[in-house]
Specification:
The structure is a single chain. The chain has a domain of 168 residues: D-Maltodextrin-Binding Protein, domain 2 (3-Layer(aba) Sandwich). Helix content is 49%, strand content 13%. It contains 14 helices and eleven strands. It has a six-stranded mixed sheet with strand order 7-6-8-5-9-11, with helices on one face. A five-stranded mixed sheet has the order 2-1-3-10-4, with helices on both faces. Strand 1, helix 2 and strand 2 form a beta-alpha-beta unit.
Length: 371
Amino acid sequence: MTDSKMPRRRGLLKGAAIAAGAVSAPIVATAQTTTSLRFQSTWPAKDIFHEYANDFAKKVNDMASGKLKIEVLPSGSVVPAFQLLDAVAKGTLDGGHGVVAYHYGKNSALALWGSGPAFGMDPNMVLAWHNYGGGKDLLAEIYKSLNLEVTSYLYGPMPTQPFGWFKKPIAKVDDLKGVKFRTVGLAVDMYTEMGAAVNPLPGGEIVPALDRGLIDGAEFNNASSDKLLGFPDVVKNCMLQSFHQSGEQFEILFNTGKLAALPAELKAIIDYAVQAASADMSWKAIQRNSTDYTELKNQGVKFYKTPDAILRAQLAAWDKIIAKKGGENPLFKKILDSQRAFAQRAGAWQNDYLVDFKMAYNHYFGKGAKS
């Protein structure tokens, strides 16, 4: 080999050594920061609603891969159920899980996300109005008017809630007069208009009050929650179907400052976790509620369809309530007008397009159906 080729070879070997050294150099891992948020639900730990709150948190935590962790505490861990909104707004809690109707005392219009017949909309249609018909901006307008630094996500269409649990079945409107009854939101006004003496107790206090005779009847929400709360242990009559809360949904609250501080990636995860949790909750509710409804019947609970006369009385009472509240509260009327316009269009479409599923059910499982 000639001397003229030696430098070139040495240069190549030197370059290879540098490259090899670069490959073998140790990689220094950057420590990942975890943002932890403390939430509280408005539900007892054993209730399926608290399970729904944990389901949402798990979806966020799983997708965030350690960058964000939401911990959900049961009702009363930090504040009582009805104080959740203030606690989140002040930063005492980073967020929470409940229903908008629980804030009814701050502005009566907040009850319109759950109380009443919603102009014939089912709960999923109310969510459609909220997300695509202007409801989301109207809710934010109310919270802003109250100087509450919260960001709200609505999700989870609830099945129609029973008229209530009673010591004696309610056969006619007059049977409700003087009955000491528990409900919340504008349903308080509806049952009051129909003659009941209403006490808006939080969920965990209902059954003890029934057991001690402090109230004669109550409504909460669904077969699974009612069973876990212990309704069948103290009363055996449940009236099904009602317009007092036929279109309700859940609310996930964030302290606005805490949410704004999160990077865009984590905000997007929260957005999509809300949507995923909404679908999952509605599917789980069908499975669990139907199973628990069957078990309650097996335990001797008597279920009755609420008579049409009572349902019509609910609608008549509601008309009086919204006329009064709409005259007192401009935001109340603004929300009603928005809901009415959406319901008239969407309801006409749904009522015309949806087939009568009861016909098919009766064909297979009703009297005279082929086995």
